[in-house]
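A quick word before the example. In earlier lectures we treated sequence and structure as two separate objects. From today on, think of them as two lines of the same record. Here is Helix-turn-helix transcriptional regulator written that way.
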Amino acid sequence: MQELVNRPSVCEQSREICPIKIVSKLISGKWKIPILWYLSQEKRRFSELQRLMPGASKGVLSKQLNELINDHLIEKIVYDQTPPKVEYSLSKTGESFTSVLDVLKDWGEEYIKEYQQIKP
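And the structure line, produced from the sequence above:
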């Protein structure tokens, strides 16, 4: 058993890019999965996202939105109007991630049923 734990992953052995590490990097950050989840429902303005995630500071939320934009998972839509209007939405790549979000949601619901029931 110990030999399996210490064995390098297939990706490390072949020196290829590991897909799991890439996904982990893309969604690492406390608010990235919730951001993606809320944007999978509809376009949102920054203030809406802040209301939906009251524990996220303005700076952290802004940083994680920018990282998601740079990683091509979301898009920032700036409307040419006064006052300025900005919305965030999933990109085409981000939309392809919604099936993963659905699986995470379903798994989370099952976990809650099994382990998070209120004890008398």
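Notice the following. The helical segments are 2-6, 10-14, 19-27, 32-41, 46-52, 58-70, 92-96, 98-115. We will return to this example when we discuss secondary structure assignment.
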